[in-house]
């Protein structure tokens, strides 16, 4: 790891520790409010009003803890039950829905131990670097100005200026240790939070079923839209040309004896029409499954796609073999759509495509040097990529700050490969 990386990570973790202290303190009044509303729950109607409100605050605090844990590499999914059938509930049913959700009680159980652990680790991740910084910056200055008796680290008290300046290496060492250890302290805090804030096994199964239901609906909608597109392309393209071809050949049959020259002219038109119809069919097939994808695999197909686009595109691919055909097709079209968005909207001069396999994931990244500011809610392109990937349990993330660069990262689960050529890389 580069020295700048661990220093940056350490400073970020120290800032996280500074934030953890007031957040930990906030847990305590939330716990008191939770206990109070549970006690007041025996009062008719009062509990139905106060308990859901306090639960909303507790869930907001727990969700913030989950988000912060994700920032240090410990993702925690939200375990809450969805509303029944997505409907609005009356006060009593809503109160009962929150009361019977196990995640509600796990949030309450986390408040006090989460406060203790969060405060202790936050204070420790903050105190050690501050003490090291004190030795580097403050102690020599104080002693030099003659502030009197003082000590630091292993030297108590300072008897000479030389003793005072011995705090410099001690402070530098303590500061380095504090910055190096702070990320591990933040991660330990996140791992502890995950013990109570993460979904249980049953909750994970419910979330999985809900996710698969949405994914299946999206896949069915996408398949229906694709079938409608194919039907429309056949009806408006190849079918029209074939009908025209049949009529032209019929006229040529009638004229073959009375006007041989005219018949030959009609047959020439028929040949041109048949070539155009064949081109339409090839274009249609290419949109379903490009031949180059079947022949050369994902890396070769992406390279061919990049060469055909009006922009310098660097392609780096490192795959151990051929993917399963459905996964390979989904990956290709996801990259193609991301590149199409780059061409249409980014005002970029260059783009880069990286494809690699890590563990059981196929990771694809499309980046450009354009203006940035891409928004998945602003059009159908990025949403289409999300739906295509979701059908295979894949995900898409977007980084596109104003001014650029834009980076689209797509991940597809895939564990199986068939033998193929060696990995390749280069510029298209």
From TrEMBL:
<dbReference type="GO" id="GO:0016020">
    <property type="term" value="C:membrane"/>
</dbReference>
<dbReference type="InterPro" id="IPR011712">
    <property type="entry name" value="Sig_transdc_His_kin_sub3_dim/P"/>
</dbReference>
<keyword id="KW-0547">Nucleotide-binding</keyword>
<dbReference type="Pfam" id="PF07730">
    <property type="entry name" value="HisKA_3"/>
</dbReference>
<feature type="domain" description="Histidine kinase/HSP90-like ATPase">
    <location>
        <begin position="331"/>
        <end position="414"/>
    </location>
</feature>
<dbReference type="InterPro" id="IPR050482">
    <property type="entry name" value="Sensor_HK_TwoCompSys"/>
</dbReference>
<dbReference type="InterPro" id="IPR003594">
    <property type="entry name" value="HATPase_dom"/>
</dbReference>
<protein>
    <recommendedName>
        <fullName>histidine kinase</fullName>
        <ecNumber>2.7.13.3</ecNumber>
    </recommendedName>
</protein>
<keyword id="KW-0472">Membrane</keyword>
<dbReference type="InterPro" id="IPR025828">
    <property type="entry name" value="Put_sensor_dom"/>
</dbReference>
<feature type="transmembrane region" description="Helical">
    <location>
        <begin position="137"/>
        <end position="158"/>
    </location>
</feature>
<keyword id="KW-1133">Transmembrane helix</keyword>
<keyword id="KW-0808">Transferase</keyword>
<feature type="domain" description="Putative sensor">
    <location>
        <begin position="18"/>
        <end position="197"/>
    </location>
</feature>
<keyword id="KW-0418">Kinase</keyword>
<keyword id="KW-0597">Phosphoprotein</keyword>
<keyword id="KW-0812">Transmembrane</keyword>
<dbReference type="GO" id="GO:0005524">
    <property type="term" value="F:ATP binding"/>
</dbReference>
<dbReference type="Pfam" id="PF13796">
    <property type="entry name" value="Sensor"/>
</dbReference>
<keyword id="KW-0067">ATP-binding</keyword>
<dbReference type="InterPro" id="IPR036890">
    <property type="entry name" value="HATPase_C_sf"/>
</dbReference>
<dbReference type="GO" id="GO:0046983">
    <property type="term" value="F:protein dimerization activity"/>
</dbReference>
<feature type="transmembrane region" description="Helical">
    <location>
        <begin position="12"/>
        <end position="32"/>
    </location>
</feature>
<feature type="transmembrane region" description="Helical">
    <location>
        <begin position="165"/>
        <end position="185"/>
    </location>
</feature>
<feature type="transmembrane region" description="Helical">
    <location>
        <begin position="38"/>
        <end position="58"/>
    </location>
</feature>
<dbReference type="Pfam" id="PF02518">
    <property type="entry name" value="HATPase_c"/>
</dbReference>
<dbReference type="GO" id="GO:0000155">
    <property type="term" value="F:phosphorelay sensor kinase activity"/>
</dbReference>
<feature type="domain" description="Signal transduction histidine kinase subgroup 3 dimerisation and phosphoacceptor">
    <location>
        <begin position="226"/>
        <end position="293"/>
    </location>
</feature>
<feature type="transmembrane region" description="Helical">
    <location>
        <begin position="108"/>
        <end position="131"/>
    </location>
</feature>
<keyword id="KW-0902">Two-component regulatory system</keyword>
